[in-house]
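Quarterly update, task 2.4: magnesium ion-bound model.
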Amino acid sequence: MVSLDVDDTIAAIASAPGPGVRGIVRVSGPRTVELSETLFESCGSREFLNRMRPTSTRGQVTVADGLKADIDLYLWPTNRSYTRQPTAEFHLVGSRPVLEMVLSKICEQGARLARPGEFTLRAFLSGRIDLTQAEAVLAVIDSSGEQELDTALRQMAGGLAGPLGSIRDELMGTLAELEAGLDFVEEDIEFITRPQLLEQLQRAGQKLDSIQQQINLRDRGAEDSRVVLWGEPNSGKSSLFNALLGTQQSIVTEVAGTTTDFLVGELVLKSMKLNLIDTAGAEERADYVSAQAQQHRIEQQEQADARLFCIDSQRQPTPWEHEQLSNLPGGCIVVLTKVDLHGADSPRLSELSQQIRSHGFAGPIVSTSSHSHEGLDSLADEISLAIINAQSTDQSIVGTTVLRASESLRDATAAVRHAADAVIHELGDELVASELRRALEALGQVVGAIYTDDILDLVFGRFCIGK
Ligand SMILES: Nc1nc2c(ncn2[C@@H]2O[C@H](COP(=O)(O)OP(=O)(O)OP(=O)(O)O)[C@@H](O)[C@H]2O)c(=O)[nH]1
Ligand SMILES: [Mg+2]
């Protein structure tokens, strides 16, 4: 549980665990200056603590009887610090026991141990950084590669919060004009004309769409996500590939074994970009081309984030299909193909589904037709769900922002759309205003202007102590 209390003085070891040349003990809160004065013995003048400007001074702290540690003290005595509270850092030799002794001396003077992420939480609560930046701090601390670090640093600089903040300001302006008009209904004074209102709402909607797209692109997981089609020869994989992509890229014939290589197409679902991969039907022919095709099929399937196991609904499952159904890997969707041949509610389909369930498969079963396009929308929904599930198990860091922001952004965009619809259908300004308020609330959640304990727990609970 995060603590929203900022009146006490907190302290923690802020350097990474393990042996390091330098160690840091960080202190922040109202009693920081007083506490530093008591503990710190300056090597130079007595008036080492300037109470107005940040200073750094060399000196010592007595950590035990007869034992002094050499310390560089960095002091931010006013609210011009990271947390916007007086803050000090004791830099000393990176020995864990010595750092702990200094920390316990500081706590004896009335500071309490900081909780994970509490320094950054104070920075957030004081308005110094927004929630997306707080998440970026976490990402910088945890980043494992150069690209991840780059993304995190850009986010820290307000990459996401900036444009969202300006849309929010604009919508706030629109709402103010609308509400001013509501106050003067009797006098028939109009602060904003209908066409102006509509234009402002539509512009905000477009901007929100483009931010959503940026966020989706930023979500490195989604870009590289792979969705693989696999199944018996002739089960309709290539037809489904073409139908989902709206192309004729993959060759379709009535001859089993048509696809002998794998084919990759770009599939855009709910503004997520995915790679859809068609593979050769599983079969055991002894020739070289077929052996290569089978090798590709197996490799593609192993690397997939979501798998569409295609079963031809017009015939009984084959022994190979039965065997596969008993060992389906995670992220699998069973697709019953060619349902146009017997209609969506034919007893044939429920019978087939029962057979599939009897193997213990609990995932989605979707009936589709590549000819009539029946079931393709439900399939698209299941694919995006499978991808989101695959990503959330992948501990992507800035991904927490993406997930949280996407949800609130979707709410905001929907509310702006409803507001525009209400204007078009002349449904009254009260309704438009209430949709606008909903949009503002959702946007506020992204930038952290409005925050709930749940969101704070989610973000700050993941920090390590001392940050
Ligand atoms: N009626 C109907 N026929 C389909 C449908 N999908 C595929 N077919 C037919 O089934 C046959 C095989 O389709 P493909 O898409 O080539 O099947 P595949 O699984 O890619 O086959 P291989 O590449 O040989 O493994 C073709 O004759 C298609 O026209 C469908 O939804 N409805
Ligand atoms: Mg094929």
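Highlight for this quarter: The domain at 10-130 is CATH 3.30.1360.120 (Gyrase A; domain 2).
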